[in-house]
Every structure is written in C-alpha cells, then in structure tokens.
UniProtKB/TrEMBL annotation, chain A:
<keyword id="KW-1133">Transmembrane helix</keyword>
<feature type="transmembrane region" description="Helical">
    <location>
        <begin position="180"/>
        <end position="204"/>
    </location>
</feature>
<keyword id="KW-0997">Cell inner membrane</keyword>
<protein>
    <submittedName>
        <fullName>ABC transporter</fullName>
    </submittedName>
</protein>
<dbReference type="InterPro" id="IPR001851">
    <property type="entry name" value="ABC_transp_permease"/>
</dbReference>
<dbReference type="Pfam" id="PF02653">
    <property type="entry name" value="BPD_transp_2"/>
</dbReference>
<feature type="transmembrane region" description="Helical">
    <location>
        <begin position="140"/>
        <end position="160"/>
    </location>
</feature>
<feature type="transmembrane region" description="Helical">
    <location>
        <begin position="85"/>
        <end position="102"/>
    </location>
</feature>
<dbReference type="GO" id="GO:0022857">
    <property type="term" value="F:transmembrane transporter activity"/>
</dbReference>
From TrEMBL, chain B:
<dbReference type="GO" id="GO:0043211">
    <property type="term" value="F:ABC-type carbohydrate transporter activity"/>
</dbReference>
<dbReference type="GO" id="GO:0015749">
    <property type="term" value="P:monosaccharide transmembrane transport"/>
</dbReference>
<comment type="similarity">
    <text>Belongs to the ABC transporter superfamily.</text>
</comment>
<keyword id="KW-0067">ATP-binding</keyword>
<dbReference type="InterPro" id="IPR003439">
    <property type="entry name" value="ABC_transporter-like_ATP-bd"/>
</dbReference>
<keyword id="KW-0997">Cell inner membrane</keyword>
<keyword id="KW-0677">Repeat</keyword>
<dbReference type="GO" id="GO:0005524">
    <property type="term" value="F:ATP binding"/>
</dbReference>
<keyword id="KW-0547">Nucleotide-binding</keyword>
Length: 342, 517
C-alpha cells in the first residue's frame, strides 16, 4: 500500500521539525523585568542606580555562581524524576576536605602537616572525588536499594553535614595556599560556572546521556524496556550531581580562603528553586540547563536588589518563597495550556 | 457508493434521536481535528464510529464527554443543548465514556476505582467499604464478571483492567455510553462477554457509541454506522445497508486490501530455543523453537501467560528456571538491555505503561531504543541521520502528526502505536517479539505493518507474534503455539490451524503438553 498521501496532506502542515520559542526566552524576560523593577525602585527609593554599578553586579554574579554550579547537577537529577537534598551539605564536606589538602606549610596547625603546599590540582581532585563519592552513594541507594530519592538524599544531607563537622571537630580549615585560592579569585567562579553550564547544556541536548536522562524522567519503565540501563544511568546522574556539589565546595573554599562545616547551609533549596524557576518540572522529563542558569540569576538579582533597597532579610525570604511558588504556578499553567484540556 | 449526507433511514425518525452532534469543529495547534462533523444516535441502538487513525473519533467522543470544549457546533441530548464544562457535567447529564487509554489507579482496589467520587459513606462521613464491596459484587453479578472487589488494580492484566473500565462506565447508569476501542486488548471470549453486556444495555434503550478498527465486530454489534475521514463526516447509514469493503473505501478514500497476503519465505536455522522456561506462579515449563524467517504466533486467552513469556524472554522479568538458547549458545538474559545486545526486540503490550514517553516528542519516542546502536560521533548524537531515518519510518508507517516535535501524547492512539512499532523496527532485531502489534491500528496501516513484518522475515528475522485477533494470528503465522493458564497446550502448523482448534487448545488444556516438532 502506498503511503497515505491524501490523508496526511489534508492537514497541510509540513512534516518539518519546527522550532518553538523556547521557554528560556520567557524566563529571561522575567529576569530583565525584575532587574528593571529594581532599577526603578532604586531611583525612587534610594535615588541611585541598581544596574549601573559593576561592583554590585560582580558580587551578585559571584554569589550566583556557587549555587548555580550545584543547580546544574540538581537540574539533571530532577529531570530524571528525582531530587537531591544533599548538595549543600556535600558542598560543606568537600570544602573541608579540599581545604585540608591546600594548607600552607608555615601554618603550624595544619590538618595534615606532612601534606602542605601541594599543587592546586591535588586539593581540587580530592574535593571532586569526595563530591562524586557522596553522589555515588546517593545513586546506589536510589537505584539499587530502591530508596526514594527524597529519603536517600535527606540521609546524605544530614550525615554529610555531620562528617564535615567531625572532620576537624568543627574547627575551620584555614591558611590556604595562594595557588589554591586563585581558583576562587576574581571572576574565576563565574567562568567555571558558565563553562560547566555550557558543557552540560550541550550534553543534555546532543548526547545519549542527555536523551536517556529525559527518557528516565518521562517513563522509567519504558526507558528500561527500551534497553536503557536505568540503574546505571541514575547512579551516573547522581554522581555527577555530587561531583558538581564537590566542585562548588572547592570554589567556595578557595573563594573564602577557608573550609568551614557551616558552609552551603540551605544551598540545596536555592539550587532546587533555581531549577524550578528555570522551568524544570518536578514531575521529571522536562528541564534545561539554560533555564536553570537564568533561574539562578533571578535568585541572585533578587538577593542583591533587596539588599540594595535595604529590605530586611526576613522579608527577603518571605518574598523569595512566594516567587518560587509563583514560578511553579506559572509552570503548571503552561503545562495545562499545552495539553489544552478542560 | 457515493458519500451522501446521511441516509434516509436515519433521517426518518429525526425527532427521536437520543444524542445529536452538529457542526462541531475542533482545532489543536497545527491540526484541524474535526471540521463541521455530525453524529446522530438513536436510543436503543449501537452506533459504530469508523475512521482511520487520527480521523478525529476520540476527539469527538471527548467533546461529547465534556473533556474538550469544541471551537464551534453543538451537542444535544434528548433535544436539549448541552453546555459542558468538564467530564463531571457530562456524567451528570447522563453520558459516560470508556476512554481509549486506561485510566485506573493501580494502587487502589477494584471497588475503590469503580466508585471513586461516589463512595457510599457511613454516618460519620467515612467510606463504607463493606457496602462499596457489596455494590461492586452486585454490579459484577449483573455483568457476569468474576473478580474480587478488594483486589488491587495493579495486579490485573490489561484485559482485566479493561473489563473494570467497562463495569465502571456501566455503573453510572447513563443514557449514552461511549466506548472508544474497548476491545483492542480483549480476546474473543471477553469480546463476547462485552457484547452480551452491550446487548443488555441496548435492550434498556440506551445509546451506545462504539469505536473499533475490527470490521467483524461492527457487523456483529452495530445498528448504525458513521464514517469519518480526516476530521470530516463522510457518511452514515444502517449497518445492514453497508458492506465491509464499502466502509473501508469510505474511511480511506480508495480501495485497500484488508490484510496483507502471507508470503512463503524460506525458513532457516533455529535462532531461539527455549527449554522448560518457568516463572514461579505465572507460567511453567515452556519449550519452543523459532527459526530464521519464521513467524511463531502465540495464541491463548487473556491471562494465559503469553505476555509474561514475552517479557521474560526480553529480560523484563527474568525466569525462575529454564534455558534460553540463542544461536546454539545458552544465554542468561536478566534485563532488556542484555536482551537487546543479543538481538532481541519487544514491542510491549501496554503502550501507556511500558511504551510511551508521554511528555516527550514523536522523534524522541521513536529514536530512544536505537540510540544505543551507534548513531553517535565523538559522543554527539548524529541527530541529522536519526531525523532522516525517523522521517522515512514515519512516512512508511503513515504516522499522522503535525511535526516530529509534537508531543506524542497529542497523537491519536493508533498513531502512537505506529511510532512504537517504528521504534523497534529501527533497532533491526534478529528476534522480534510483537505483543499485540496492531492494537488500535486502522485497516490500511495494518496491512502496511503486516507487509513490514513479512519483509523482516524475508531477511531472516525470527518473529514471535502475540495477538488476540485470531484472524491476524492465523493469517501471519507459520506455526502457532497455544497457551492456557501458563502452560503450552499445543502447537499447530499453518496448514492445520483454524479458529476452532486454536480455541479448543486455548480453553481445554491437553495434558501433558504436546511436544513441538
Ligand atoms: N490534545 C491534542 N493536542 C493536539 N492534537 C491532538 C490532540 N488530540 C488529538 N489531536 C490530533 O487530532 C487528530 C485526531 O485525533 P483522534 O485522537 O481524535 O483520532 P482517532 O480517530 O481517535 O484515531 P485512532 O484510531 O488512532 O484512535 C490527530 O491528528 C491528533 O494528532
Ligand atoms: Mg482514538
């Protein structure tokens, strides 16, 4: 039988791959809108410009970078239909470990007096390794022990924080080498953040790794039956999320010049918020890194803007919470419109 | 036969229509799903709605059932225009619908699923489970269904779930009952059962709208027939005034052969041999062989374990004992991933549960299984090459979609099925297992799929085909293995097999199982 030309032609729609306006564009407009709002409020309340201040913008984007690096991993986890609550604690643990391998030799109370003045790669690798291991444990618990992601990463959140404290009995790890702190100096965190973002944006879009990640989130059973090794892939995704939390820990320690067990408190929630504001669906199967980057920027602009206007920190949190919920409401609305049912 | 507006028989007692649909139009982005269509259902009749995949049948049914709001046009029930704002309104007005896809909650019991939102309450406003179970039993007694109301729905087979959907729809006691391909997952025996239920409802004066792609069913059950093509109303007449060929011609707009003729191809060496395969509590002692170029049909009633055997071969549920030998080598297959490494492919039975990535696009759904076989250069997916192959497969299977980037959830059921068939054909398997491959697929596309399968076996692929449609099994298979309650009850050669001896083996077990050749 010949192909059904009559019936397909009737629709008069070409079978071309048509590109729709990506959701990132609309989120980006929201970002611009918020920034302009602060600009207006700045002139109205403080008689000063919010945007025309390079120093403030640099500080803002530096703050965004560390959360942003975490959020890139968390986004991928959420796309698989999971969640990662451990990233803030893993950041703290890696900051401690990485700092302990980056101390100067003239510091008398170094954690490892024999291992001081090491080249910067070693503490970096140690940090990445710790992060990846934490992620690996998360992934293994979820994929093989069948523990729900919420519970597994909640456990990791609590114990990684504990390990960070136990590592030096709660003492900060300071006096780090110059070559190590260089990692966090100047605009380096921003460069690292954007490089990681571009890398994973491409990986999600153009590689098998990315396609499988979406498939597992969309329908894990169908993914398995399509021959995808779902368990192995989940372990990989959680390990990458851990690795990125580790990277964030290294950058944070290098920037602060110290490792402290209290670092990264609640960062996991900011990371999840950045992903959700950026259009990642907690139901799985939907999300993009570009959206998450913009989502993180929105959080950064808000933090910086409220501080600039002198809004009390408590109120900042209240407004932030409302914006996160609003983002989800908008997302739901968009989904419903896509399905167009009553 | 020239399509006229609608026949006189239907026009005569115009005042007496139970349900009237007029000038209904419905568009989706990029698609005109329905364009100025009509449908008139008389009380006490079964009205069959026929049309190719994507003709707009389900869309119109969803409009009648309040799921979609039409862009224009009206729906009248007993002469009164309906203004529906949701499925609830339709139920209250007296319209119930069995959807093409199953919509049950797997972790709730059968009774809870049936009476959801209508649970009997006790004096404290709490659900009275005893009463609900008794109500279910009464309903089941009336419908002749034999199931435990307290069983979890997830433990039912697809056919079992379909029966629950039917019972649930009947329990609303509505005037109009819409059935969108209710038999696509039912075997003959359950179909007969459903028809008894339908006859009962018809005798009570209800109007039943019945959608199916199976011609024989239409003539057995329908009083009136309406045909749609590409979102347009084409023709309506009494079933007795139409023939199967006429209907197909109206549906497709030209002549088609109903089923692709079987082509004899040389049969080669044994590719897959299965020896006393068992899965505890599900099936036992299954042994058979499939050769290159051979189509082995698997027949049996629903619940006979055919799907379970297929899933075990493919590593979805690894066996508890037995041997699987591929090309003379014993293999341990513990996951679909490993099965695919050994050249197997399985089109699963439940497309919503284990087939579709509903939120993803047509192309993502189609390419997902083949991605693992190359299609990457320096870790980047060769999207361009994939696009081309998916495009040609889409064309070959005449998948009707506005674009390859359309979300697959927006395609009609039959077109979703075609995409899944495409997914597995693209993996170029050596052993292809098809579980209800043409479920929900229209006559024209079915012939095309049969042709594709024939092409595969000509190239030496071994095919195992499960189908509840006996004519399809009889028409395509070289040999037929019949199962009953998890055991093989016999093998029939193409030359000796017919509906009667298959049904005999499928219902009355022969002990011990007949050894195969
Ligand atoms: N929610 C939706 N969004 C976009 N397009 C849709 C939607 N629902 C249906 N369509 C389109 O409308 C057309 C008619 O679909 P419909 O499901 O009514 O077909 P059908 O006649 O029931 O086919 P089948 O026999 O395959 O079930 C198809 O082209 C389909 O792609
Ligand atoms: Mg349909």
């Amino acid at each position: 039988m010949a192909t059904n030309t009559e019936s397909t032609q009737h629709l008069e729609v070409p079978k071309k791959r048509k590109r729709k306006l990506p959701t990132e564009v609309s989120i980006f407009l929201v970002l611009i809108g918020i920034a302009l709002l602060f600009e207006v409020l700045g002139w109205a309340i403080r008689g000063d410009s919010f945007l025309m201040n390079p120093r403030r913008l640099l500080i803002m984007i530096l703050q965004v970078s560390i959360i942003g690096i975490i959020a890139i991993g968390v986004t991928q986890v959420i796309i698989t239909g999971g969640i990662d609550l451990s990233s803030g604690s893993v950041l703290a643990l890696t900051a401690m470990v990485t700092a302990s391998f980056a101390q100067q030799s003239d510091y008398l109370r170094a954690v490892y007096p024999a291992l001081t003045d090491l080249p910067w790669v070693l503490p970096l690798l140690a940090g990445l390794l710790v992060g990846a291991l934490a992620g690996l444990v998360n992934g293994a618990l979820i994929a093989f022990a069948m523990i729900p992601p919420f519970i597994a990463t909640l456990g990791m959140m609590v114990s990684a924080r504990g390990m960070a404290r136990a590592y030096t009995d709660g003492q900060p790890v300071s006096m780090l080498t110059d070559q190590f702190t260089w990692i966090g100096s100047g605009a380096n965190p921003v460069i690292i953040f954007l490089a990681v973002a571009v890398f994973f944006h491409i990986a999600l879009k153009y590689t098998r790794y990315g396609k499988y990640t979406y498939a597992i989130g969309a329908n894990p059973q169908a993914a398995r039956v399509s021959g995808i090794n779902v368990r192995r892939h989940l372990v990989l995704v959680y390990s990458i999320a851990g690795l990125l939390a580790g990277l964030a820990g290294v950058v944070a320690a290098a920037r602060a010049g110290t490792g402290q067990a209290g670092m990264g408190m609640m960062y996991e929630l900011d990371a999840i918020a950045a992903a959700v504001i950026g259009g990642t669906s907690l139901a799985g199967g939907v999300g993009r890194i570009a959206g998450t980057v913009i989502g993180a920027m929105i959080l950064g602009v808000m933090l910086s803007g409220f501080t600039f206007l002198g809004v009390d920190a408590y109120y900042q949190d209240i407004i932030k919470g409302a914006i996160i919920v609003a983002a989800v409401v908008v997302d739901q609305y968009r989904q419903r419109k896509r399905n167009k049912t009553t | 036969m020239e399509p006229n507006n609608y026949s006189e028989t239907l026009n005569k007692d115009r005042a007496g229509f139970l349900l009237e649909v007029e000038r209904v139009r419905k568009t989706f982005p990029g698609v005109v799903a329905l364009d100025n269509v009509q449908l008139k259902v008389r009380p006490g009749t079964v009205h069959a709605l026929m049309g190719e995949n994507g003709a707009g049948k389900s869309t119109l049914m969803k409009i009648i059932a309040g799921v979609y709001i039409p862009d224009q046009g009206e729906v009248r029930l007993n002469g009164k225009t309906l203004h529906l704002h949701g499925p609830l309104g339709a139920l209250e007005a007296g319209i119930a619908m069995i959807h093409q896809e199953l919509n049950l909650m797997p972790y709730m019991t059968i009774a809870e699923n049936i009476w959801i939102r209508r649970e009997p309450l006790n004096a404290f406003g709490m659900v009275n489970h005893d009463r609900m179970n008794r109500m279910t039993e009464t309903l089941f007694e009336r419908l002749g269904i034999d199931m435990d109301p307290e069983m979890d729905v997830r433990r039912l087979t697809v056919a079992g779930r379909q029966m629950i959907e039917i019972a649930k729809a009947v329990s609303y006691e509505s005037d109009v009952l819409i059935m969108d391909e209710p038999t696509s997952s039912l075997a003959d025996r359950e179909v007969e059962h459903l028809f008894r239920i339908i006859n009962d409802l018809r005798a009570q004066g209800k109007g039943i709208i019945y959608i199916t792609h199976k011609m024989d069913e239409v003539f057995e059950i329908a009083d009136d027939i309406s045909v749609f093509r590409d979102g347009q109303f084409i023709h309506s007449a009494a079933a007795s005034d139409m023939t199967s060929d006429e209907i197909i011609k109206l549906m497709v707009g030209r002549e088609v052969t109903q089923m692709f003729p079987k082509e004899e191809v040389p049969i080669g060496d044994v590719v897959l041999s299965v020896d006393s395969l068992s899965l505890d509590g599900v099936f036992e002692n299954i042994s058979f062989e499939v050769r290159a170029g051979e189509i082995l049909g698997l027949a049996g009633l629903v619940g006979s374990g055919r799907t379970n055997v297929a899933e075990t071969l493919f590593g979805v549920t690894p066996p508890s004992s037995g041997r699987i030998v591929i090309d003379g080598k014993e293999e341990v297959i513990s996951s679909p991933h490993q099965a695919m490494l050994r050249g197997l492919a399985l089109l699963t039975e439940d497309r919503k549960e284990t087939g579709l990535f509903l939120g993803l696009s047509v192309i993502e759904n189609m390419e997902m299984a083949v991605l693992r076989d190359g299609y990457t250069r320096a870790t980047f997916v060769e999207q361009h090459r994939l696009d081309q192959e998916c495009d040609s497969m889409t064309e070959r299977l005449s998948v009707k979609t506005p674009s390859m980037d359309e979300r697959i959830g927006n395609l009609s059921g039959g077109n979703q099925q075609k995409v899944l068939i495409g997914r597995w054909l693209m993996t170029k398997p050596r052993i292809l297992i098809l579980d209800e491959p043409t479920r929900g697929i229209d006559v024209g596309a079915k012939a095309e799929i049969h042709k594709l399968i024939t092409e595969l076996v000509r190239n030496g692929v071994a095919v195992i085909m499960i189908s509840s449609e006996l004519p399809e099994v009889l028409g395509m298979s070289d040999r037929i293995m019949v199962m009953h309650e998890g055991r093989v009850t016999g093998f029939l050669d193409r030359s000796e097999a017919n509906q009667v001896n298959i049904m005999e083996l499928a219902s009355a077990p022969v002990q011990p199982p007949v050894a195969h050749d």
